[in-house]
Amino acid sequence: MPNTEVKTIGVLTSGGDSPGMNAAIRAVVRRAIYNGMSVKGIKKGYQGLLNEEIEDMNRRSVSEIIGLGGTILGTARCMEFKTEEGIKKAAEICRKHGIDGVVVIGGDGSYRGAQKLSHEGINTVGLPGTIDLDIACTDYTIGFDTAINTAMSAIDKVRDTSSSHERCSIIEVMGRNAGYIALWCGVANGAEDILLPEKYDYNEQAIINHIIENRKVGKKHHIIINAEGIGHSTSMARRIEAATGMETRATILGYMQRGGSPTCKDRYYASIMGAMAADLLAQGKSNRVIGQKNGQFTDFDIDEALAMQKSIPEYEYEISKIL
Questions:
Q1: Nearest Cα to 73, choosing from 146, 21, 119, 121?
Q2: What is the pLDDT of residues 168-221, one digit of tens each?
Q3: Strand partners, 114
Q4: Are β-strands 193-195 and 222-227 bridged in parallel, bridged antiparallel, or unpaired?
Q5: Is 201 labeled as catalytic in the residue annotation?
Q6: Of 132, 134, 266, 299, catalytic
Q7: Whether the Cβ atoms of residue 86 and residue 49 lie closer than 8 Å to each other
Q8: Which residue from 78, 143, 163, 166 could staple onto 47, CB 3.0 to 4.6 Å apart?
Q9: In angstroms, how far is the first alpha carbon of the chain from the final one?
Q10: How confident is the model at residue 143 (pLDDT cuts 50, 70, 90)?
């Protein structure tokens, strides 16, 4: 059963890091202290919890971190936490350190951990910390805005040199098996082709034909945005060059999209969500995740949130092809 009175909360970041996590940590700590609670920082995600890498936090602990990328608490993957024994051990460690509730900042996998921890009597609230925008219960995830702006800037630079050398450039962006970064950057950067895991039919000949047709009408370069979930950009570049005779290069943007100082939107939204997480725990709530839907910040039951499905909006995809 969840605790009706939470006096001490722990905060951790789990899974891949994303810009804005520090803003969320800062808000959790300061709002919790304002609410009369104590706060402990849990290092390196669930792995750090199992290793008891736990420290007291105060307002000064989170000074001047709102503009930093990454996460001051660190993050790690943890296979042990996926086991029943690991979950029970984590709950006992929480009780040992007087932690009544935990704020988990991460993606769907992190939510599943929070869900299981709540079943062991530890109040939990999840925040959507991922650049992938692939959490179904929310229209916004912490770090997505920074990631797409970082990628957009990089793609603009690649386009400059692609145009100068009259090349085809395949630019691979992150997003695991979700194509949101590719879709947004493809539209924002004016790409000629956008390849999304949710939509791509692996008809490479259609891309080749598109390049040939564009060259016939005087197009000097060609930009293809390829999502990480499709991958294989380098081998794709070799095949396209062989088929079209157009010099083709692959650029994989990689982890640069996760780093850097977060945008104003990521700082602001993460701050509101972090404060809301502390408020929910102060109210004795558990097994909740915070999302932003239709312009409003709200919370969902984790079970409900994990059951939701998310897909690329069909209208937006159709527009991306026309543009």
A1: 21
A2: 999 999 988 899 999 999 999 999 999 999 999 999 999 999 999 999 998 889
A3: none
A4: parallel
A5: no
A6: 132
A7: no
A8: 78
A9: 53
A10: very high
Amino acid identity, position 156: D
- Tell me which residue has tokens 């804005």: 20
Token pair for residue 283?
A: 């109210």
CB atoms within 10 A of CB 190: 12
Residue written as token pair 């915070």: 290
Order of all β-strands in the sheet with 222-227: 193-195, 222-227, 168-173, 248-252
Distance CA 72, CA 60 (A): 13
Task: Read off the pTM.
Answer: 0.94
Q: Bridge-partner residues for 269, per DSSP?
A: none
224 in Cβ contact with 192 (< 8 Å)? yes
Give residue 3's pLDDT.
Answer: 63
The SS3 of residue 248 is strand
Q: How far apart are CA 193 and CA 204, in angstroms?
A: 11
Confidence of residue 2 (pLDDT cuts 50, 70, 90): low
Q: Cβ(65)–Cβ(24) under 8 Å?
A: no
Return the structure tokens found at 255. Answer: 């982890």
Instruction: Say if CB 75 and CB 45 are below 8 A apart.
Output: yes
CA pair distance 157, 7, nearest whole angstrom? 50
107 vs 140: CA distance, rounded Å: 12
Alpha carbon separation from 234 to 5, 80, 198, 221, 227 (Å, rounded): 55, 36, 21, 18, 13
